[in-house]
Amino acid sequence: MSRAVVTPLRRPERSTSARQPARPRKTVALGNAAAPDSLAARLFLLAYDPERGRLTARSKLGKLLRAAILVDLQLSGHLDDDNGRARLTTRASAPVDPVVGGVLAELRAVGPRRWRRWIDRRGGVTVRQVRDELARAHLIRVEPYRVLGLFPSARITLRHPLVRRHILQSARDTLRPSRLVSRVDLRDAAIVVLASTADLRTVVTKDQRTRHKDRLAQLAVRVGPVVPALKKSLQQAQASAGG
């Protein structure tokens, strides 16, 4: 006796005109992982070289991340430029990112100072804080180990390489001549300009810096006073190391 084949019933399709609450779309291309909102966190991911499996530009990374946080605070309306100094606004809302919020608390405790003053402060601490936040967000894996069995260090690997690729592509798209400088997203512009200033070649190669020199200068004007402050800070650090 043959068995009856039971065909499962299909649920009726919902009408597209039905009033249903909109659901947030999942970013499938990023492996269901969201890119971090903080510019410093994004630049940390971009400083990671997937081919070498390690962070690059370590000596400059602290200053670069501090500069990124200052740009973040300026773009969010927490800071204004006051004749070359970072001045707090009356905006009351606290930043969502705890590292950005910590830098804002530093500024509140001290008061207006030149932008470079804040770039030069606590670079190593900031790098570790940004790294730890990325680890908590499961975007990187941090594995402690000892160099030569003696010196403590940490091995970093990407959990979601597509997130980094997406951030990199958005930043590099700002260099396309077909896009008006005035219409480029300022956060993407900040990433590519800060990376270029710090010679972060995992973002902007030497050849790209040469070919897009004028456009990078135009984007830097839009990003604001943090860019020249970062440049001076890096130049001074290089001169001190050379001397």
From TrEMBL:
Record flagged with keyword Membrane: yes
Record's keyword annotation contains Nucleotide-binding: no
Subcellular location(s) per record: Golgi apparatus membrane
Region of interest: Disordered: 1-25
Keyword field: Golgi apparatus, Lipid-binding, Membrane
Mode of membrane association: Peripheral membrane protein
InterPro entries, alphabetized: GPP34-like (IPR008628), GPP34-like_sf (IPR038261)
Protein's UniProt name: GPP34 family phosphoprotein
